[in-house]
Amino acid sequence: MELIFVQHADAATRDVDGGGAFVPGATGGHQAPAVARRLGAEGGWDALYAAGPPAADTAAAIGAATGLTPRSSPATADAVDAVIADHPGQRVLVCACPQVIDEIVRRAFGVAAQVVRSPDPTGITRIMASRTGHREIVSLNDTAHLRVGEPFRNVANHDNSLNNNETGKAQP
After folding, report:
1. Which of 6, 19, 75, 112 has the CA that lies 20 to 30 A from 52?
2. pTM summary value
3. Strand ranges (DSSP E) for the chain?
4. Taking a C-beta distance cutoff of 8 angstroms, is the pair 36, 61 a contact?
């Protein structure tokens, strides 16, 4: 199965009304919509999980773009094994905190040391996973959606227009 982890958007502050809701930090307001556009354009998703309160808002944005309803999941690396067991052969999105994502990556590499020291908000980590325990990391902390100055387009349909200047000539 393909398992995609998305770190939640920057949620530096809590709601001042005391309701406990997370409010996007200074840059978090554009992060969740950007990753949602990217994953919505990619399509083909089978399930979406939110692991923990900060991840819920990011998962809601992704859900709106993909047509999936976010399911709640405990914010632990062990909960991911249950997600893998429940979705053989599928493509699943999991919004989570950086600690959970780092734990999954460390398990995949078989190391105890921290792998992703400062993961970026809405960074995407792709892992191929089997129910037998095999894990293969495809990408780690990918944030291309934050660098694109327009709504993210499917890279398979990329026409190189981002490398053109006003005259339409390709830039080196």
Report:
1. 112
2. 0.75
3. 2-7, 13-14, 22-23, 47-51, 71-73, 91-96, 124-129, 135-142
4. yes
